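Record type: monomer structure entry
Structure origin: computed from sequence
Chain ID: A
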Amino acid sequence: MIHYEHANSDDFMHTKAPQSYADDNCNDNEIAHEFIHAYIQEVHRIAMAGIPVDVKELANCYLFVAEIPGLKNTDVKVQVENDSILKISGDRKREDCEDCEVKYIRVERQSGRFARKFNLPANADLEKISAACQDGILSVVVPKNPPPEQRKPKNLDIKIAT
């Protein structure tokens, strides 16, 4: 089984307490609402920083398919860390005009660094991993090592020393 995580998966655990938490006049519903709102914002920020990835197990390999629209091959890195973790990372840059003033009305496209990490199974052949990118889709193929050969039971005659 392949386990995966965002590179910054524990960030949401560090959500700060709302200011009203320290206010004795604030009721519990307001405090709960502020905590929930802060938590949802943090989860949304983390989710948007990542990239969507499908992971498929085929007969002879694992296939990771990531959406990276608008990125060039030079903007994305595929690595294996600690002999067991596949890392897909990159940097999505905003195309601002340096000579003109820009006033955004709405910003939905995320920019900045992103990273996704996946724990690879023991049968992954790390030496033969390959990646290709076409039309904003990154495909990473992780071949499987063949299963170890089954040893046939042997009968041995052992001489007893006198």
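Annotation 1: The chain has one helix and eight strands.
Annotation 2: Residues 1-18 have pLDDT under 50 and may be disordered.
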